[in-house]
Every structure is written in C-alpha cells, then in structure tokens.
Fold:
Amino acid sequence: MFFQQAPADTGAYMIAGYAVIFGVMAIYLISLVIRRRSLQQDLQVLEEMEKKEPPQ
Amino acid sequence: MDGAPVVSHAKTPGLLEGMRLYLRSIAALVWKDLAAELRSRELLSAMLVFALLVILIFNFALELDTRTRATVTAGVLWVTFAFAGTLGLNRSMAMEKDRGCLDGLLLAPVDRSAIYFGKAIGNLIFMILVEVIVLPIYSVLYNINLFQGGLLLVILLGSLGYVAVGTLLSAMAVQTRTRDILLPILLFPVAIPVLIAAVKSSTGFLQGLEMAEISPWLNLLLVYDVVFIAVAFMVFDYVVEE
Amino acid sequence: MEPKPRLLTILDAVTAALFAIAVGLVFFYAPTEAVMGQVQRVFYFHVAAGWVGMLSFLAAAFAGIVYLRTGRRHWDIVGVAAVEIGIAFIFINIVTGSIWARPIWNTWWTWDPRLTTATIMELIYAAYLMLRQGIEDPDRRGRFGAVYAIVGFISVPLTFMSARLFRTIHPIVIGSNQPGAEGQFDMTPRMLQTFMFSLLTFTFVFVDLLWHRVRLGKLADHVEQLKLKLAA
Structure:
C-alpha cells in the first residue's frame, strides 16, 4: 500500500464516513425539533387547562 | 446496625479533639459493619461463594491448562475480585438504606465524609477477606504460588482504588429505582484504569518481569487511588444529602 | 417560554455558513492524500467530532461543579444537554474512525488507546443517562448526575494513560512523529487549513447545539412544573 503510485481507491469509505457524519447530525437536529414541537403542544394544552380551572 | 456511632461529648471540640472524634466515628462505623457481619455472615459468604463460582466458570470457559495459566491468572483473579466486590458494595450500602441506618448516620454530629471513610474501610476489609480466602484456594487448584510480596501489594492497591470509587457510586446506586443493576454499569467504565493497571502489574509480578516494566503500572494504581479518594471525599456530602 | 434571542439566530446563521464552507473545503479545497486516497477526507470531521465530544464532557463536568456549588437548576440542564451532544458526537467519532481504519489498518477495530478511551467515554455517558433515569426527585437527580459527570471526567485521562501503556498504532497527526504508526501522513498547508477550519466550525456547532438543547431543557422543565402544579 505504501509503495504504489496512485492513491488507493477508497472513495466508497469516504462516502460512508460522511454519510454517517451528516446522518447522525441530521437525526440529532430533527430530534431537537420534534421534542420542541411536542413540548410546545403539551404547554398549550396545559395552559388551556390552567385557564379553565383557576387554582382555588 | 444497632445505633449510630457513639459520639458522646460533642461540645465545641478543638482541632485535636475534633480529629479524634472524626476517627472515632469512622472506627465505630467500621466496627458496626464488622459486628453485623460477624453475626449474620451473609455478605461474606455470598461474596465468597460467588467468587469461587466465577473461578469455576473460568476454568471451563478458558481451559486453564498449564500454558495459558501463566498469562491469564491475573485476569481471572481480577475479574473475580471485581465481580465479588460489586456484589459486596451493593449489598453493604443497600443494607444501610433499607434499615434506615443512612438517615440515622446523617443525624449524627459528625462530618459526612466520616460515613464515606467508614463504609469504604468496611468494604475494603470485606474485599480483602474474600481475596485472602480465594488466593490460597486458587494456588492449590492451579499449582501457582500467589503469595508474593509484590502481588499482594498490587491486590491491596487495586482493591483500595476499586472500593474508593465503588463506595461513592454504590451510595448513589442504592438511592435509585434501578439500584440492583445500576452499580456495575456506573462502576465498571470508571474503574477500568484501576483494573487494567492491576491486571498488568499482577501479570508482571507473576511472570517475574523486571521492576522497570511493572513500576509504571504501580504508579498508575497509586495515582488512581489518591485521586479518587480525594474526589470521593469532596463530593460524598452531595450524595447523602437529604 | 422566552422568545428566541437575537444572538442565537445570528449564531445559527454563522454556524450554518461556517459548516457549508467547511464542507466545501473538505471536498474541494483539500488535496487528495497521496497514499490513502479519498478516505483521508474523513479525518477532518472525524477529529472535529471527537473534539466536540471532549468539549461536551468538559462542559458537563464544569456544569456539575457549578451545580453542586450553587444548586441552580440551570446548570443541571446544561449538564444533561452537554452529555447528550457528547454522545452523538463521540458516536460519530467512533464510527467514522472505524470506517477509516477498515481500508488503512485493514480492520474495523483495534484496542488502541484513543479508540478504547472514546468507547469508554461513550459508556460513561450512557451510564450517566441511565443513572438519571432511575431517579425521580429532580434535586437528587441533579446532584447525582453532577457527581457522576465529575467522577467520569476525571477517570478519562487515567483510562487513556492505562490504555496508552499498551502498544499503539493510531497515528498522531499533530505533534511528534511516531514511527510505526500506520496511516501517518504529513499535512500539506491546505490540509492544515482545512483541518483547523473544521475544528473552528465544530466548536461553533457545539456552542449552537448546546444553546438550543439548553433552551429545550428549560422548556421541558417548565412543562414539568406546570404539570405538577395542575396535578396538585
């Protein structure tokens, strides 16, 4: 490997590597967005409930 | 078991008097654990039988013939000690928790780190007792002389480091919902350096390597022990706070 | 919930721009390595992800210390946020390293100090989350989490040292040249620029993600308290 002229053909591994990098980062970002959405929905419901029955 | 440490005249002690009080409460705690164990013998016997079972399983899993024995003995011993140690750590802290001793101890007018040192010394004694019984049995079973000064020193240092972290983490683990499974998960990744160093230096002594090759591992063991005893001493307060 | 701060919007934009430039540099500016070929390009983001992992472990330990000192919930939220980001990025680091190692070392995995340490760090992070899951009382959850983040962080250099006393084949690209390390290469100026820029970019990514995750944590905290209030 160290004595050959042309660089080794390792393009497929590079693609796999960057697929993992972009993939994991995208999944993490999406999970942040989804969690925020669901929390905001919860918050809305809770705030409505609070309005309906004010604390005694 | 019966009652918090005996601290009678806790007025406003001077430094020397305070130190003596501190040491006395550690001693009382250790003694309490030992006395309870002397009566029930449930912890030691469980650890011991467990340790022997682990060695038995290794015997068949690894086919401990004469050739492999020289290289794997240290590994087998330390895995055994680590597993048995986890068992003991978990049980000893769970007992405090279940019988409400922890709450009682917290009321005692003594620094909380004394509780840590008391429990840690108790755990260390149990672990060393198990090791003291396992070593001759292993020696007889596999015809290896394990009673060498260097090896015994490694076992002491390794157990010390393992117990120093283990006592802190078991105090946290028993206060969680998943307490029975949590301790090994918390302890093993943090205890890896002490286990690697202990296995390596034990192998070094067993194979009669030169001191120059063993001493880096011994240094690592020492550093680990000092660092984690200091850290546990500083943070233990937050683990038992109510 | 408080509205999104202006500074965060700016940070988002800057981070996105930096990231786009870094990707451009990696694929079009940095030369193809003479021996390893294309796969060497993985190196830039591989190291940067590891850097983010270390940063978040440091941040979690720091947040832990401050939380124990002050008892302010804010720092507990920062601690969890950092750990979560750390898990994601150490995962990227380990997997990309493995993908790189396959053609260069001819194996997916070896027990090299860095690989070992990264893996154990990931396990410590996982244990941290499991510890927190088992505790209901938020105050105790925060305290125990903080203690474990500190203990875990301190153990990492010791783990690295113990693993290092074994023979290593991982290349040390920065600093001393170590004979015998396979996959070693000298960085050309363009490679070095790309590498440094990637590190800078990922530092921004870390800060940006941490900020967003902390805001999410605070929102979750707020919802939790509202639920308790209504249940009472």
